TrEMBL record, chain A:
Functional description taken from the UniProt entry: The GINS complex plays an essential role in the initiation of DNA replication.
Xref: Gene3D superfamilies: 1.20.58.2050
Keyword Ubl conjugation set for record: no
Protein name, UniProt field: DNA replication complex GINS protein PSF3
Ranges for domain GINS subunit: 80-183
Alphabetized CDD domains for the sequence: GINS_A_psf3 (cd11713), GINS_B_Psf3 (cd21693)
Organism in which the protein naturally occurs: Eremothecium cymbalariae (strain CBS 270.75 / DBVPG 7215 / KCTC 17166 / NRRL Y-17582)
InterPro entries xrefs: GINS_A, GINS_bundle-like_dom_sf, GINS_Psf3, GINS_Psf3_sf, PSF3_N
Gene Ontology cellular component terms for the protein in this record: chromatin; CMG complex; GINS complex; nuclear replication fork
From TrEMBL, chain B:
Name under which the protein is recorded: DNA replication complex GINS protein PSF1
Compartments where located: Nucleus
Subunit: Component of the GINS complex.
Ranges of residues in domain GINS subunit: 63-137
One term under GO cellular component: GINS complex
Alphabetical keyword list: DNA replication, Nucleus
Family statement: Belongs to the GINS1/PSF1 family.
Length: 186, 203
């Protein structure tokens, strides 16, 4: 989770659909037509690095009795919809996370932090645990000979991992392989 | 919109990372001079926007929002540029440790096959970093070969086979006549460098 972390930067570039709470002239380029004003309640796709700040910063209060609204409001994304959450709950290990998002965990953490979403955090936590077991199972069954392609089931599993899990798999796999190599060369 | 170019650059950085991870000795891909230049141009454009917004400051939420968006775009571009350069500089640093620190510290030029792929500043950086490494090695820690192999030695004497003809090579501990295909039984410490350079193969 560093400033220079490439995966983190890629995750922050993911677009979310948002709704503007104010009329803002001069920001039409966010919508794709520069020179026009951005209308109130316009729905646009904003990258997370922009939207997460604009969703916190508030405009000035127009009337004292009103609470100040932030500039934009997140619309609940497809990625964390109840459909996906239900799919995770039912069978996490066989879920194709990569097709949902390549950066599912990073975005999940960001989202849960942004909205203090305890339920989502719990779901993702459990999901990671269940999937990690599966990843470990595949990573530990390595053959010592170089050049042997992973088995079909491992291949299909690899296609469904998100970037974080791929890193996890690679590191586990390399550790097991090195340990085996060392033991067999004694 | 703003930041799209920076995204492309980050994808390039990711590709570089994967390339370096998969085969350790791979060379760094070409520095994306044009893309970096375009991003910098975008940043200066954003800066002009920001200055313009500051001039016609009338306060209120509208200018606040515009100013914020401009600033965030600049920040994003900065982060992407820095991350890209950081990925490359890490590769350069590991190059300096692994390949430039050989035996006689022969001149740096020519050691990196891809010096054409580096930007001018990166070449400068590599040169100065290598200098730093060699300074450190010739300082207080001169008895330890800091850029030497990190695998712990297990045998004092080893068999080696010559992979490449190199004629007579003078090392600090004696003279070898390296003829392709011949084998030697030597002290490991003497030939470690030659193994690293690829003249010898450990058996």
């Amino acid at each position: 989770m560093g400033y220079y972390d490439v995966d983190e930067i890629l995750a922050a570039g993911t677009k979310f659909s948002c709704k503007f709470n104010y009329d803002i002239p001069g920001l039409g380029y966010l919508e794709g037509n520069p020179g026009r004003q951005l209308n109130k309640n316009a729905k646009i796709e904003l990258p997370l690095w922009l939207a997460s700040v604009l969703a916190i910063v508030t405009g000035d209060q127009e009337h004292d009795d009103e609470e100040a609204l932030p500039f934009v409001q997140f619309l609940s994304p497809e990625m964390f919809s109840s459909k996906v959450v239900n799919a995770i709950k039912s069978d996490a290990p066989t879920l194709d996370v990569h097709s949902i998002s390549g950066q599912f965990y990073t975005l999940g953490i960001k989202w849960a932090t942004l909205f203090s979403d305890v339920e989502l955090a719990g779901v993702i936590n459990k999901m990671l645990l269940e999937r990690a077991l599966e990843i470990n199972r595949h990573a530990s069954s390595v053959s010592v000979d170089a050049g042997v392609a992973p088995s079909d089931s491992t291949g299909t599993l690899l296609m469904t991992l998100d970037e974080f899990e791929k890193k996890l798999y690679k590191e586990t796999h390399d550790t097991y392989r090195d340990a085996k190599l060392w033991l067999s060369r004694r | 919109m703003y930041g799209d170019l920076a995204n492309k650059l980050i994808l390039e950085a990711k590709r570089t990372q994967q390339l370096v991870n998969t085969n350790a000795s791979s060379e760094l891909p070409m520095f994306q001079e044009e893309m970096v230049h375009l991003i910098l141009k975008e940043v200066s454009q954003l800066q002009r926007n920001a200055e313009f917004l500051k001039l016609q400051e009338e306060g209120g939420k509208v200018s606040k929002c515009q100013y914020f968006v401009t600033m965030l775009c600049m920040e994003r571009n900065k982060r992407c540029l820095l991350a890209y350069e950081k990925v490359r500089s890490e590769v350069l640093a590991s190059l300096a440790w692994e390949h430039n620190g050989m035996e006689f510290f022969s001149d740096i030029t020519g050691k990196t096959q891809d010096s054409g792929n580096l930007s001018h500043y990166e070449q400068e950086y590599l040169k100065e970093y290598s200098q730093l490494v060699s300074d450190m090695k010739t300082g207080d820690l001169i008895d330890v070969d800091l850029s030497g192999s990190l695998t712990p030695p297990s045998d004092v004497f080893i068999d080696v086979r010559v992979l490449r003809d190199a004629g007579e090579i003078q090392t600090e501990y004696g003279v070898f006549n390296l003829i392709k295909g011949s084998q030697f039984f030597v002290r490991q410490a003497d030939v470690e460098r030659l193994i690293q350079q690829g003249y010898l193969q450990k058996l």
